[in-house]
Amino acid sequence: MSRTSRRDERLSELAGLMANHGVMRLRDAAAQLGVSEITIRRDMAQQNGTNGAVYGFHCLGGYIISAQDGAGGSDYSLEQESDCHAVAKAQACAEAAVLIEEYDTIFIDCGTTMPHLARLVPENKSVTVVCYSLNIAEILSAREDVRLIVLGGVFHPSAASFSGEEGIETLKKLTINKAFISAGGVHDTHGVTCSHFHEVPLKQMAISRAVESYLVVDSSKLGRVRSAAFAQISQFRQVFSV
Length: 242
Fold this sequence. Notes:
InterPro entries: Carb_Metab_HTH_regulators, DeoR-like_C, DeoR_HTH, NagB/RpiA_transferase-like, Tscrpt_reg_HTH_DeoR_CS. This protein is an alpha/beta fold. It has 2 domains: 3-68, Winged helix-like DNA-binding domain superfamily/Winged helix DNA-binding domain (Arc Repressor Mutant, subunit A), CATH 1.10.10.10; 80-241, Rossmann fold. Helix content is 34%, strand content 24%. The chain is built from 9 helices and 14 strands. It has helices spanning 3-21, 26-33, 37-45, 78-81, 86-97, 114-118, 134-140, 165-172, 200-209; strands spanning 24-25, 57-60, 63-66, 105-108, 127-131, 146-150, 154-156, 161-163, 176-181, 185-187, 191-194, 210-217, 228-231, 238-241. The strands form 4 sheets. The chain has a 6-stranded parallel sheet with strand order 6-5-4-9-12-14. Strands 1-3-2 form a 3-stranded antiparallel sheet. Strands 10-11-13 form a 3-stranded antiparallel sheet, covered by helices on one side. α8 packs parallel to α9.
């Protein structure tokens, strides 16, 4: 069997696994297919099979997700946004992370800015982190000094986040010291907006349950307006933007 045929066969098997699981850890998929993680990544980089099949997989935070679900015509793609303004995002998060104190319960929003904040959660401070996105959970799941609460529900691959009543009900039972919120647009008149409507109830509930809420965005979001409005600028104690 040729190398191309083996790749097509693995991608077909991966498609079957994804149909059953929806979302898979890269290492689990590699183990089930009997190949290395590097091989899986290489296969996904060449997803147009010789048999005419086109596979819509990509890796995000150690997980394999399908690009076919969740976008619903949104103007936002996590993969496309991940490297945009990365330095500014990291700097804004570095300024915000200074506020995290010992024994805090903090909410970390989804998006491509917040992984920078997740990596800056102070060590050995007994911090509890509440989140609803895979990229944040993946970063903090390896931290033994952090108590992690992941809000579940329906998974949206385009944003790598969950939504649903389960997450809302969990948030209602929590008191959050500080909520760190991301946004796709920050406008003086139209307020704070994002591209995914499924995020709105979770963002709003987190803000309502937080003693203090902080908006963390890069400066490219200032003056922009996205389709889903969820807050006014006045609801935030401070805006961190670089």
